[in-house]
Structures are given as C-alpha cells and as structure tokens.
Amino acid sequence: MADPLVSIRDLRVAFHGLPALRGIDLDVAPGEAVGLVGESGCGKSVTWLAALGLLPRTAAVSGSVRLEGQELLAAAPSVLDRVRGGRIAMIFQDPASALNPVKRVGVQVAEALRLHRGMEGATAEAEVLRLFDQVGIPDAKRRIHIYPHEMSGGQNQRVMIAMALAGQPELLVADEPTTALDATIQAQILDLLRRLQQETGMALVLISHDLGVVAEMCRRVCVMYAGRIVEEAPSGELFAHPRHPYTQGLLAALPDMVGPRRRLEAIPGGVPEPWNMPPGCAFAPRCGHATPACDAGMPGFVPVGPHHQAACVHVQPATVPA
Amino acid sequence: MSLLSLEGVSRVYATRRGLFGTPVPVRAVDHISFSVAPGRTLGIVGESGCGKSTTGRVALGIERPSEGTVSFEGAAMPTPGTPEWRRLRARLQLVYQDPLGAMDRRLTVAAQVAEPLEIHGIGDKAERQDRVAALLRDVGLRADLAQRHPHELSGGQRQRAVLARALATDPALLVADEPVSALDVSIQAQVINMLTDLQEARGIAMLFISHDLKVVRQVSHEVAVMYLGRIVEQGDPEAIFADPLHPYSRALVSAIPVPGPRRIERIVLSGDPPNPADRPSGCAFHPRCALATASCRAEVPQLKPAADGRQVACHLVEAA
Ligand SMILES: Nc1ncnc2c1ncn2[C@@H]1O[C@H](COP(=O)(O)OP(=O)(O)OP(=O)(O)O)[C@@H](O)[C@H]1O
Ligand code: SF4
Ligand SMILES: [Mg+2]
Predict the structure, then answer these.
(1) Looking at residue B286, what DSSP letter applies?
(2) Residue B10: which domain range?
(3) Do A135 and A209 sit in the same domain of this protein?
(4) Which residue among A182, A186, A257 places its CB closest to the CB of B241?
(5) pTM for the whole structure
(6) A215 interaction partners in chain B (CB closer than 8 Å)
(7) A157 lies in the same domain as A97
C-alpha cells in the first residue's frame, strides 16, 4: 500500500470509564475507498469523531491518529480547525440536522469556502454554483437562495456533500450518508459519491451498517464488533470468503435478493454491554466455534490471504505469507 | 377464503398548501384492492410517502376509507369506536417500527403483555399469568425479563415484548409496519424467524409493510409495490424481485445494494419522488420513467394481469 494518508494506531476511547473503542488500527491510503461496517454501537462513528477531535470532553481518548505523519490526537485546536473540513471532511447521517435551518444553503457553502479557501464575494458565489452543479443540484442559481427545509432529504444531502467538497478534502468520511434516504435516492447519492471520488481523487471512508452499500462502494472493508476491527479484506473477498465467525454470521443473517428463499441463520444473543465485556474474544458468547482458548485473551489478527486478516483464535493462517 | 379484503379503497386527506392556501385533497391511497388469506403474508413495499402505512391503518379499521370497502371475514369493517369495532379490535393487531414508543415506560414487560387480556376480559388472574408466561416463551424472551421495564431491554427484546402483547388476544390479522427496520441485521434475523414461525403455528394473516425489499422478500407469500398511493405491481415475491416488470419496480429493485453479484442492472432514477399533493397526470411515475410515451402522460394505467399471474399497471407491459 502507498504511504497512508491517515494512519490510526491503537485508538481507544472510553466514556465514563467504560470502553467504546478497544484498540483500532486502520490505514487509509490516498484516493482509496474503505468501508467500515458493523452493528449499532460497535464504534464506527466514535472512531472518526475521536480521530477528528469531535468527542465531548468526557471521552477518554488514547492512541495515535496521524495525517501524513502529523499527529492529530494531541494537536492544537488551530491545527485541528484547519484539518477538519479542510484536509478531512465529514458528512453525517442526518443532513437536516447538520445544516443550519435558518441560513440559506448557498450561504452555508460560501462560509465553508471562506473558512477553508479564503474565498469571498463573486469568486465564492461562482464556486458555490460550480459545486452545486458538481453535486447535481439542478437550477443552482435559484436553489442557492433557499433554506434546508425547502429541499428534499436527498437534495439536502447533496448540499452537505457540496459543503464537504468546499475545502477540497483529501479524505471524505461519510457516516451513514444514505441511511435516512429512500432506496432510489440512496442509489443517486452513492452514484454521486463514486463519481466525485473519481473526479477529485479524494479518499473515502464510508461508514455503514449496510453490507450491500459498502460492498458496492469500497475496495476494502473493515468489519467492526464491540469496539474492535475483527476482519479486514478486499470487499469481493470478504463477501465471497468471510473468515471471522462474526462476519460469516452477519452474511448468513442477511436475507437474499436472488435465488430460493432459505431460513435465515440468526446469530444468537446480542452484543455485549460495555460493562460486561467478555475476557477474550468479544464474540465468544455468541460464537458457534468458541472454545476456552477464545476466553484466554483478545485474539490478534491472523493473515488469512492477500490483504485479508481476521482476529479469531480458530482461523487458519494462510500457508503462503500474505 | 380471504380474511381481509380491500376493494377499490382510497384515502383522501385535505392538506393546505402554505399557511393560508386553500385545502387541496391529497390521495394518500388511491384505488387499491387486495386480499389476504389466513396464514398468508402480503408484503407492501415502496418509498416514504407512497401510502404504505395509510394502507395498513385502513386495513386495521383505525381509519375509514374515503372510497371503497374494507371487509374482514366477509363482513364490512365496522365504524371505529362502535362496540362491534371494539370486539373486532382484539383480532386485528398492529406492530410498528418503534417498540419503545409503543410501550408504557412505567409498566413491566409482564404487565404490558397482560394489559390486552385485562381490557378484553380474557381469563382470571391466574390464567392470565400463565398466558403471559407462555406468550413470552413463544416470542423467545427469558422469564427473568418479564419483570423488567422497557428501557432495560435491548431493541430486539423490546420488539419481542411488543409482539407478545400483540399476540395476547390471539389475533387473526397482524399489520406489521416496519417491524424490524430499527434492528441490527443479526437481531433482525431472529425476529423475522420468530414471526414466520408464529405465523405458521397460529395461522395468522399478515400485512407486512417495509421499505426493505430483502426483508419483504423473505417473509411474504405475495408482494405489492406501491408508488404514490397506487399499487403498480403485485405478485409472487421471487418473481417480482428477480424480474420486475413495472419500470418503477425495476428501478427500486435495482437500487438495492447487495453484497455479491447483482442480477439486474442498476437504474438510477433522476429527480425526487413527487409530492402526493402534486400528482402527475396519467401514470404518476411518468416524469421519472425513461420509457414514458404520450399515453403515459395522459392516461392512468390500470392493474392488469401480466406474465406468471402477476398484475402490472403500465401501458408498456403486455397483458397476459
Ligand atoms: N458522547 C458519548 N457519550 C457516551 N457514550 C457514547 C458517546 N458517543 C458514543 N458513545 C458510545 O460509544 C459506543 C460506540 O458508539 P458509535 O456511535 O461509534 O457506534 P456506531 O457503530 O457508530 O453505531 P450506529 O450504527 O448506531 O451509528 C456506543 O456504546 C455508544 O453508546
Ligand atoms: S476467537 Fe473464538 S469466539 Fe472469537 S470468533 Fe474466533 S472462534 Fe469465535
Ligand atoms: Mg454511527
């Protein structure tokens, strides 16, 4: 892999003494698309909120997050302000709440341009129009003057994306960007993100609970469970040959869109509570392959194929080194 | 024999455009007909605002249709609030997306499941206790959870508790409106399996409403695709999702992201779904349809039988 743009090492977060992230290692290369999947509460959002210094003070954060070698975790607020929305932009699940309801959408994008690129007046306005056009908002000249509530959910998400692009980011972190949208609108937005990534060459981290969404959008996928990454692989490989019992379980639990219907294989039980973490593998209480060895300690990553690794005591390492 | 049947049902609301605008009639549901037999599930899919939930409420008799008739076990649905309606209510139950909102935060799970039994005067105290224990067992809730309050349960456990309560009166029809949409995949599978098992054991008819096509395909014996208040395609779920005939169903099915190879090519629709208050002429889908012709703009296509016993409302799909 090329020198990483962002490199996260042993990132840990605890809220009120309870662990939410328990050691995340993740690299993002320039221009690549990485997916982060996992069930609600597994720490997908917290990973990036912590990386960008967006968690409340009550959060205890440790580890390292580097942007081309520059440490972000202990960085001064002025440094972080330049990184956020500049080199790294983030968009959130609910566009309506992320936009300011009492400001015209064009003004909000213009503010981002002033902040990150020092643009003012006519230059800024021309750039706002160009961005609206780039994200596929029709009739941009008129639309820049309206308020978020006058637009549909899909159009608001386009405005959010335009705002994220305003700082010409090298990395866009999209946290469930389409979860609140209807299926046909989701398809439009995913299409747009894919096109923008090609046009601008920015890297994309796509956070989603939807395995289908990340499979279609990302070359590489990380599966998270209870605050850790448990499997990482190229996306085709992950869905064809999942190796971690949790990933296998997730795929078996998902109804198919094609072929004969079969009874779903549900994963028994639920995710462990943060105050009740199993001593070793967090998946052990729900895992059909668990043995006492699984409780002995947190399983480390085992290479199981090219660029493919799984954190499970019982996976067989690849015979050829990856 | 069908248990529930809707015949030419419409539901019209008056909404104002702007603060002082004159009220305009909005057809949330427009001329739909279907029936559900005991032990069978009709899945209803479509995007937000297409009229899925309104259809569910009309089917339950909570709302009256503006046009058309709803019948239950061959007789017309009684007017809401009448004694006949109240008697029937026990046999028609609703489960929806937000289990926490459906529960009383101050009551234990056991008390909530017992409530409908008390309201409908079923059994004495001891019998009710036994019945509650059996219901909790049926939905797979551990006995010790019976004394917990809703906020002490996980999302999946709450949805099970809500189901136990809905099943308490032994309903003949269950309207499930996005019942698993708020749940994570692994928990969703547990609840889906439980629902289909219970349906089989008790012969319950179900109206299963969801925007999640994968889930609807999994649970339904028949499926109806809705667009702007009308059913545009209806038939066997495996057939419809493998080879949708209506251009809207094609776009909808093709929009679903799947891990692994896809069967039909992605069609990305332009534009937003239209506002029901501003219904396009002719086929409501025509402004977004790549195949639309002059007759699509002028004439409303009716549901007609097409291949493999399916019904499709599109001018360009050959009638069988
Ligand atoms: N500000 C906070 N204060 C306390 N706990 C928090 C806070 N933010 C997140 N958490 C906890 O951290 C854990 C991880 O949360 P996170 O939001 O990262 O999950 P997620 O994977 O993004 O889930 P979802 O799919 O629901 O968005 C959860 O247990 C959550 O309750
Ligand atoms: S380490 Fe053990 S419990 Fe964990 S996933 Fe592997 S087999 Fe299952
Ligand atoms: Mg999140």
Answers:
(1) G
(2) 4-91+171-312
(3) yes
(4) A257
(5) 0.90
(6) 257-260
(7) yes
On whether ipTM exceeds 0.95, the answer is no
Domain membership of residue A282 as a residue range? 225-310
Q: Cβ of A2 under 8 Å from any chain B Cβ? A: no
- Among candidate residues A218, A241, A258, the one where a domain is terminated: A218
Q: Is residue B144 domain-resident?
A: no
Q: Helix or strand or coil: residue A228?
A: strand
Residue A315 lies in a domain: no
On whether residue A321 sits in a domain, the answer given is no
| CATH number of the domain bearing residue B69 | 3.40.50.300
Report how far residue B192's alpha carbon sits from residue B174's, in angstroms, rounded to the nearest whole number: 14
* Ligand positioned closest to the Cα atom of A226: 1
- Measured in angstroms, the CA of B36 and the nearest CA of chain A are apart by 21
Candidates B185, B28, B9; CA nearest to A255 is B185
Residue A159 inside a domain? The answer is yes
- Report if residue B142 sits inside a domain: no
Does B300 fall in a domain?
yes
Which residues, other chains included, contact A48 with Cβ-Cβ below 8 Å and sequence gap of 6+? A90, A173, A175, A205, A207
For ligand 2, atom 6, name the residue with the nearest CA: A312
Q: Is residue A80 part of a domain?
A: yes
Backbone angles phi, psi at A162, to 5 degrees: -60, -40
- From A184, A218, A252, the end of a domain falls on A218
pLDDT for B176-233, tens place per residue?
998 888 788 888 899 899 899 989 999 999 999 999 999 999 999 999 999 999 999 9
The tens place of each residue's pLDDT in chain A, 322 residues long, gives: 568 999 999 999 999 999 999 999 999 999 999 999 998 889 999 999 999 999 999 999 999 999 999 999 989 999 998 899 899 999 987 766 788 989 999 999 999 999 999 999 999 999 999 999 999 888 889 999 999 888 888 888 899 999 999 999 999 999 999 887 888 889 999 999 999 999 999 999 999 989 999 999 999 999 999 999 999 999 999 999 999 999 999 999 999 888 888 999 999 988 888 888 999 999 999 999 999 999 999 999 999 999 999 999 999 888 755 4
Q: Are residues A262 and A130 in the same domain?
A: no
Based on the domain organization, do A94 and A208 belong to the same domain? yes
Cα separation of A10 and B137, whole Å?
43
| Residue from A8, A11, A46, A90 whose mutation best tests the ligand 1 pocket (most atoms within 8 A of CB) | A46
Give the total number of structural domains in chain B: 1
How many helices (H) and strands (E) are present in chain B, helices listed first?
11, 12
Instruction: Count CA atoms within 13 Å of residue B285 on its CB side.
Output: 29
Considering only CA atoms, which of A140, A120, A114, A322 is closest in space to residue A237? A322
* Residues A148, A104 share a domain: yes
